[in-house]
Write a structure and sequence with these properties.
Structural class of chain A: alpha+beta
Strand order of the largest sheet of chain A: 1-3-4-5-2
Number of helices of chain A: 4
Mean pLDDT of chain A: 96
CATH class of chain A: Alpha Beta
Order of helices and strands of chain A: EHHHHEEEE
Oligomer: homodimer
Largest interface: A-B, 35 and 34 residues
Helix content of chain A: 25-40%
Low-confidence stretches of chain A: none
């Protein structure tokens, strides 16, 4: 297992990639973000985005899935998250885009009251042209090694 | 239509409510956040959460759906968002919880280059016991009245 103590400030990793389909964009937006530029390819053409784009929350959800899959591969002892410090949707995500997620650990501190620690990470997701589509600062909670506290 | 110019700093509104089912929690998490405390009711009992909880990103997606539905009712001229300034998942969301979303406009400023304006809002989502489960500061973009620029 990778515990809180095993995270080093400055460590970076490419967590994975995923291609986003139009079908998936429409399905997510239909449930959670039914604005025409997310749900209607024709209406989206007339919008300021010039075509269908993924909901920003869908982009975040994809980021999360890539993170969780990577967490499982690395056997990280994750126990949730208190939140996100900032999130910027810098460029639209369009059908067929392939997104690649990179994480850099920027801070780590132990809880004063629980056998866990907090890890702050800078997450950057780029499309197939190397353009950053999502820039996010997230906090994760991880179990400590037994007896570490 | 409610344009950028029609938002007033300090205005508050209750945007809507929604009850979250276990089925929906499992479906979202299975796709986007497959950590055991989001996907497996039995495993979740043994977690620090003591039972199944919704993915934080699912909570954000529900917040977005309530916002979009309210935006449509109020005919707000929304054209997307550059991002979120902060997001805190303050309490777990559990199956059967009924969430109610409140928005307060905290800042509004016009774009210098485009016929839109930015509106910063403090979003607060509470459960049926009045406990805040999500506290979020979001930025929305809205069209300006024609000729306003």
């Amino acid at each position: 297992m990778k515990y809180f103590e095993d995270f080093a400030v400055g460590e970076t990793a490419v967590l994975g990639s995923r291609t986003v389909s139009e079908e998936e964009i429409l399905a997510f937006a239909g449930k959670y973000d039914p604005q025409p530029f997310h749900t209607d390819p024709e209406a989206a053409k007339a919008s300021i985005f010039g075509g269908l784009i993924a909901s920003g929350w869908h982009t975040c959800a994809i980021m999360m899935r890539l993170s969780v899959d990577a967490m499982e591969r690395a056997m990280e002892a994750g126990v949730g998250s208190p939140g996100v410090d900032s999130c910027r949707w810098l460029r639209p995500v369009r059908p067929g885009d392939t997104l690649t997620l990179k994480r850099e650990v920027t801070e780590a501190w132990p809880s004063r009251t629980k056998p866990i620690g907090f890890v702050r990470s800078h997450m950057e997701m780029r499309n197939q042209r190397g353009e950053v589509v999502l820039d996010l600062v997230a906090i994760g909670m991880f179990r400590r090694r037994e007896g570490a506290a």
